[in-house]
Design brief:
- With 208 residues, this protein is an alpha+beta fold.
- It folds into two domains: 5-90, no CATH class; 115-202, no CATH class.
- 22% of the residues lie in helices and 41% in strands.
- It has three helices and nine strands, in the order E-E-E-E-H-H-E-E-E-E-H-E.
- It has a five-stranded antiparallel β-sheet. The chain has a four-stranded antiparallel β-sheet with strand order 1-2-3-4.
- A hairpin with a 2-residue loop joins strand 6 (131-143) and strand 7.
- The longest helix has 29 residues, at 86-114.
- The protein is rod-shaped and about 100 Å long.
- The model has no long low-confidence stretch (mean pLDDT 95).
- The structure holds zinc ion.
- Zinc ion (ZN) binds next to loops.
- Zinc ion is lined by residues 22, 24-25, 27, 58, 60-61, 63.
Length: 208
């Protein structure tokens, strides 16, 4: 991939000051522009680089002004702007978003386990002859502590989050689950995941 990166210089702050006079015309009216370079990737700043540089001009006669004490003062008081860290900030925002959504998704799972509803679909796990087997159940009726669930047709050898196109739930194959056992089943991974508010394309709406 073609990477476009490098250093750029930009003005980060501008001031007007009347604290010193221009040695050309004697007026007290100076513009101070502070510049600093930054590293960029495709023009997006990564971090500031190098020292700041104040460039001063007289607003009356337009001549450049060189007063080290004054330029040092403005170089020191000017901070690198936060947007000079755009890429690290974007990366941090992305990480925070991922962590937050993973956290919300997990807390939803606990909520679903503790308050089952009809039409919830569980991904179930069991081991048989040291083979990993995954399958689905769909809750069709809840009667006090008892959940009536339909089983799907196929077993899967790895964790799946949707059903194979030929797979479906069948009313000829049902399972009973108990509400009070669900938290433990979720804890020991017999129930891997709960799906609620799913789409047709997940296959969970196919019942024969
Ligand atoms: Zn001047």
């Amino acid at each position: 991939m073609f990477l476009f990166y490098g250093k750029r210089n930009a003005r980060i702050k501008q001031y007007k000051t009347e604290e010193q006079s221009c040695k050309h015309c004697g007026h007290f009216n100076i513009t101070v522009k502070v510049y600093q370079e930054y590293f960029h990737l495709f023009y997006l700043p990564i971090a500031p680089v190098g020292t700041k540089e104040a460039v001063m001009t007289c607003n009356n006669c337009g001549q450049p002004v060189r007063l080290n004490r004054l330029s040092n003062k403005y170089e020191e008081k000017t901070r690198s702007p936060f947007y000079y860290y755009t890429i690290p900030l974007l990366i941090a925002a992305l990480i925070i978003t991922l962590i937050t959504s993973a956290y919300i998704s997990n807390s939803n799972q606990t909520k679903y386990i503790n308050a089952p509803q009809t039409n919830d679909v569980y991904v179930m796990y069991q081991q048989e002859d040291s083979m990993d087997m995954y399958y689905f159940v769909r809750i069709v009726k809840i009667n006090e502590d008892t959940l009536f669930a339909l089983n799907n047709q196929l077993f899967y050898s790895r964790y799946v989050y949707k059903m194979d196109p030929v797979d479906y739930f069948t009313e000829n194959d049902t399972t009973l689950l108990f509400k009070h056992e669900l938290p433990q089943m979720y804890e020991d991974k017999t129930i891997q995941r709960v799906f609620r508010n799913y789409d047709d394309e997940d296959g969970f709406t196919r019942i024969n």
